[in-house]
Amino acid sequence: MAGQLLEVHDLHTQFFTRDGVVHAVDGVSFELAAGETLGIVGESGCGKSVTALSLMRLIPQPPGKIVQGSIIFDGADVLKMDDDEVRGIRGNNIAMIFQDPMTSLNPVLTISRQITEALELHLKMDKAEARKRTVELLDLVGIPSAKKRMDDYPHQFSGGMRQRVMIAMALSCNPKLILADEPTTALDVTIQAQILELLKGLAKEFRTAFILITHDLGVVAGMTQRIHVMYAGKIVEKADTGELFANPKMPYTWGLLRSIPRLDERRKSKLLPIEGLPPDLIAPPPGCRFEPRCQYRRDICREKEPALEHIPNAKPDHEARCWGTQQGGWLVDIDWRKEVGDTRIIEEIKQEVAQLPPEPKAGDVPPPPTAL
Amino acid sequence: MFFVALITFTLAHAAPGSPFDRNPNRPLSQETLDRINRYYGVDKPIPEQFVIYMGNLLRGDLGLSFTRQRPVVEVIGQGIGTTFQLGLAALAFALAFSIPLGIVSALKQNTIVDYLSMLVATIGTTIPAFVMAIFLISIFGVSLHLLPIVGWGTWQNMVMPTFVLGLGAGAFLTRITRASMLEAIGQDYIRTARSKGLHERAVIVRHALKNALIPVATIIGPATAALITGSFIIESLFNVPGMGRLYVISILQRDYPTIMGTTLLYALLIVIANLTVDILYGALDPRIKVR
């Protein structure tokens, strides 16, 4: 596609450990237009953060290595750049906000120093200009009496304030893209909302594209235009945010949605966790990676891996990686919501699944669910 | 300091023998002995001697050396300059090689450079100073005739004692520097610094080094103490006319006032070293405020 700010194609990032090669990111492709916002959602260890770090070539090497793929940012392949060119992009065109503001700021440098160093480096400002801009930035992110506090050290700020500092730092050089890796996970809920609002507002104001990485679907709901769901190093579903919540097409996404507590549920309903753990990324399952934990699985899921494909009964740009919901699958017409919040219904669903029209290989009985 | 004085005093007097019974070939008459004891105040009960000593100490009087017939202050004054010269040279030498070596081996972790410097550090910590000293004396002094074996006064005299004394402390500091540097470069803020597009050198010098030096600074206090105390052996071996040698000789001669004076001075130096480190610590780490 032309005119994209970022095109990631078939990205593979692996970690070479003593136990074997960990396929942390395994063939991820996506695009992002200028000013567009994207959420990447998935549980811990599914490759979200590694994807983000790969975009800036910040994967610690060794043991990590980007082994395949291309990352076209603004027309140039980040993976083919030399170190100086990459440094010219980091902080300048792509900025990153990290998860834990407690540890992501250097404890022995004042916050003004940590912001001005990027300004002096990329925008060639002198000390006075950089300090002036720092005050503006800190004002912008809502730090009270910024002028007085800019020479304080990180430990003199609260967690939420430190994350504001991180946002100021990320915005400092007017980047075209901000990568926010779980920016609110380490903060308490009221602060979370403030930080998200701030990020959203500022990105809109400066027309900055951002990728919000989170394990919490609730966080991305009001934040981004599109959502990509990741599982075990792969993108398993891509859709517009509204579409994804209204019409999800991948059992893993259903599981994520079911595990969000809802205020409008009846009181006795229970949250439904996704049973088991994500697969071992050293030796991932040969078929669908979610198959071992999927309650709708069939034999084909174990044997062959589904592609990320367009889904019937959905918007045209909605794609999912699932044999069941793709054309001719056995989950095309299922209403996933039926079992929300009620464990009792799982048995009914299982029966219902058993009665669904058989998949191409006729006569198959769904394998008994093996608890992981 | 009071307790140091009390303990040293008690221990020194508890050791068997007296300063004046050394020479069995020329026994002193009881009369002479009594007179000498009275002159130096050793005839009084020990607690009373202590009180008198402490009283004098507060007035800056360390007493009279039994064996040298001169005030202890003067005797120590002669040795202290030499000891300081040696100690500071050794500290400078230790810092000069240990910190760069530690940083380099942390940055090049698990490479030949790292293994080599860790080998040097391990040798430095495991081989005792007196073994190393004798080793060096036999190579450079006896076989090659490059350096004088004993004595003091020229720079050639300083080379071996400084090297031996600095090696142990420096080897220890190398390990600490490497460990804390490794810890620092694994921190999240280093990733943040890299994400800002800083040059690797700026990341290391500005962001990692300052954090890594905090634990190193903490160790410099005890390391300085180790240099001071280590100089007993080195000064005796190389016959350097410093405090360490004086200390050893005075213990052998049961010269109580000199033992006391040197011990107190050592204690004072260690206290000062640690205090300096604490102040340094406050300057390095903004989380610790010097009040």
* Termini separation of chain A: 41 Å
CA radius of gyration of chain B is 24 Å
Radius of gyration of chain A: 22 Å
Number of structurally distinct domains of chain A = 2
Strand line-up in the sheet with most strands of chain A = 6-7-8-3-9-10-12-11
Q: What best-fitting shape of chain A do the alpha-carbon axes yield?
A: globular
Tell me the number of strands of chain B: 0
Account of the 3D structure:
The complex is a heterodimer of chains A (372) and B (291). Chain A has 372 residues and is of the alpha/beta class. Chain A folds into two domains: 4-224, Rossmann fold; 230-355, P-loop containing nucleotide triphosphate hydrolases (Rossmann fold, 3-Layer(aba) Sandwich). Chain A is 30% helix and 21% strand. Chain A contains twelve helices and twelve strands. The two termini of chain B are 23 Å apart. Chain B is mostly helical. Chain B has helices at residues 2-14, 30-40, 46-58, 72-107, 112-126, 129-143, 155-185, 188-195, 200-238, 243-252, 256-284. The longest helix of chain B is centred in the C-terminal third of the chain and has 39 residues, at 200-238. Chains A and B meet through helix 2 and helix 3 of A and helix 8 and helix 9 of B.
Tags for this model:
heterodimer; A: 372 residues; alpha/beta; Rossmann fold; 2 domains; four-stranded antiparallel beta sheet; 30% helix; globular; B: 291 residues; mainly alpha; MetI-like fold; 11 helices; 76% helix; elongated
Topology:
The complex is a heterodimer of chains A (372) and B (291).
Chain A: E1 4-17, E2 20-33, E3 37-41, H1 48-55, E4 64-73, E5 76-77, H2 83-89, E6 94-97, H3 111-122, H4 127-140, H5 146-149, H6 159-171, E7 177-181, H7 189-205, E8 209-214, H8 217-221, E9 226-231, E10 234-240, H9 241-246, H10 251-258, H11 299-303, E11 309-310, E12 319-320, H12 345-355
Parallel strand pairs in A: 3-8, 3-9, 6-7, 7-8
Antiparallel strand pairs in A: 1-2, 1-4, 4-5, 9-10, 10-12, 11-12
Chain B: H1 2-14, H2 30-40, H3 46-58, H4 72-107, H5 112-126, H6 129-143, H7 155-185, H8 188-195, H9 200-238, H10 243-252, H11 256-284
Helix pairs in contact in B: 1-11, 4-5, 4-7, 4-9, 4-11, 5-7, 6-7, 6-9, 7-9, 8-9, 9-10, 9-11, 10-11
